[in-house]
Amino acid sequence: MTNRSPRLSVIIPCFNVEGYIPETVASCVHNARSDFEFLFVEDRSTKDHTYEALLELTKRLPNSRVIRHERNGGLATARNTGIDAAEGRYLTFLDGDDWLAPGYLAGLVEWIERLDVDFVRTDHVQVTGVNRMVHRAPEGRRHIPLDPRTSILPVDDTTMVDYPYAWAGVYHRRLLDRGMLRFHDGLRTAEDRPWIWELHRRAESYAVASLRGVFYRRGVASSLTQIGDVRQLDFFRSFDLVLGELADDPEAHRLRKKALRNYCVVIAHQLLQRDRFERSVAAELRRRAGEVLGRMTEEELNEALLGMGEERVDVLRRIRGGMKGVAA
Fold first, then answer.
1. Coil, helix or strand for 25?
2. Where is the Glycosyltransferase 2-like domain positioned along the sequence (predicted)?
3. I need a labelling partner for 277 at 20 to 30 A (CA). Which of 28, 107, 215, 286 fits?
4. Which tens digit of pLDDT belongs to each residue from 147-185?
């Protein structure tokens, strides 16, 4: 690497991904440039030899480093470790079981430099087995600078705060200098919910680019989304953080409605998938869901659940009484 700071830092948390990391590293090799750095954060894998695989595979990846945690800290903490070590003008993320199309990173840098915005968001390709499906970022205005706040509402439609994937975009270092971009340490799931809300509330500008070079692998057995243990319940803390940070926002009343809808959607999803949880975790899920719903007024619930669908409303109704008048 030259003496100059890199243009782009790529932060790649890795945990129990030995079977996938060869493809991930190979995709980075096909994106490497002399002004890009690659930071692999090995989060003390417990079931395989991810660390040893990284040490060997990254020998052929220029400007790469492997940073190993002393103890497992979870995805949010691993990303923060990478952020702390990053030297680039721009930062992006990649999960250790996903991969990139050749030239994708150059495209990210080209768009954020061309538009001179705080961050750029992109589409992505979801991979389930041999099937691939393009998922578009839910903002129709493309390739122009936008006010991030204008992409939070409406309440009852999918917006950019419903598309929280940190790896689907690139972020200017000035966000970090303004106290943004870091994740809440210790969050094991839904770590990107408070993160994306803060970006859209506090950043000054952003854009959406029609790049589809991130391949997001679904259904990975080691992924936390596939594991029904107590770590899944961290989504309660995540959304409580969103609501707490909204309290002082000048548009708190309007934005709170959207956050409550997000919260209810995720609660309903988890309740509908409760059979994958251990019995004690399922009981805790029901208890905490009841507490959250119980704190909402009837008016807030009606606005949050309007048009959400009968199945979701029914499962929430069983947790919280007094919802017979809520429209599905």
1. helix
2. 9-150
3. 215
4. 999 999 999 999 999 999 999 999 999 999 999 999 999
